[in-house]
Specification:
By secondary structure, the chain is mainly alpha-helical. The chain is about 65% helix and about 5% strand.
Length: about 300
Amino acid sequence: MSRYQGTGDFLQEVEPITRLYPLFPSLDFDSAFVNAAWPIALCSSYPAELKERLLAALISLQFGLKSVDYTRKNYVHEFEDEEASREDVKIASFLKESHSFLYLLVEELTHHEDGTVGRILAEFALLRQEFSFLQLLAIANRGALFEGLVVARMQIEQLAWICAVDREPDPEKARRIQAQSSLSKLKRIEPRVGKLYGYLSDHAHWSYGAHVRALLSKDERLGVLFASVYHKIELYMVMLSICEVQMKVIFNIRASEIGALAQAEQYEQRRKTIAREIEAFHKMLKSRLVNVKQEVSQDI
């Protein structure tokens, strides 16, 4: 199987449609010039010089300065390395690398001729996990907790469905397998996923205990909380948990095949390294919430 982002010959899309409704499924902006007349979104990984030149061009246009070089020299400070100073960038980079590793591992195992319908469907769903993660990351960077947890819940349901459908040879039986009723099979691989799924469902279904978190009160006044840095941290904890569950699923349902690969030892070492990093990042994020007296769910 190969990646397709919704453009190109594979989907037979015609030029007028792609021009009127362009797709940007893989762009991931996590930095911006927000106080300018025309805000510009950036990736934190962009070179510092590029950021300085863009900001200089923006300032010179906004204030009618003729020389971009003069503006850069006199009004633009040197940019620090965001990848080195921002914890969210470090975690996002780690998650991207981990998902890419898992994607390539699954892709390596899909080249077979005797796959059952269940196996083909399972691998199709596994290969979607990386793409779903990127959409969740974009929502997390906006601090939108409830919207992000809907995507996260879908990912857990997909992983549960994968565990149920993987070894099913009968197309009709595979068609009838429901994701929500497959959670028990996923719990055999990761027992803690039941609490995580309950937490996700409470927010996705707008239960009272969850939705009151979107309300603020101060001096007898009520407000609505749409986004929060603390919600971003919480979503990052969820993304780490889902990555761990996905990795456990792959290394469980494909254990014998992974063990037969020439790089089996390297893959096992990579698995252990990812697991250690997930635990370390999870503890760090939890400490950030505790330090600001934010309630931390024990189910993430």
